[in-house]
Amino acid sequence: MKKILIKNVIKNSIADELEIYPNDYLLSVNGEEIVDVLDYKYHMSDEFVTIEILHNDEIIEYEIEKEIYEDIGLVFENELIDEPKRCMNKCVFCFMDQLPDNMRKTLIFKDDDYRLSFLTGNYVTFSNCKNEDIDRIIKYRMSPINISVHTTNIELRKKMLNNKNADNVITYMQKLYDNEIFMNGQIVLCPGLNDKEELIKTVKDLAKFYPYMQSVSIVPVGLSKYRDKLYPLRPFTKEEMKQTIIDIEKVQKEFKKELGCNIVYLSDEFYLKSETELPNYDEYEQFPQLENGVGMVTLFLDEFNCAVNEAKKYNIKSNKEISLICGKLIKPYIQKCVDILTKEFGIRIHVYDIENDFFGENITVTGLLTGNDIYNQLKDKNLGEITYICDVMLKDDEDIFLDNMTVDQLSRKLKQKIIILHAGGDILVNELLK
Question: Looking at residues 178-187, what average pLDDT do you find?
Answer without folding.
Answer: 98
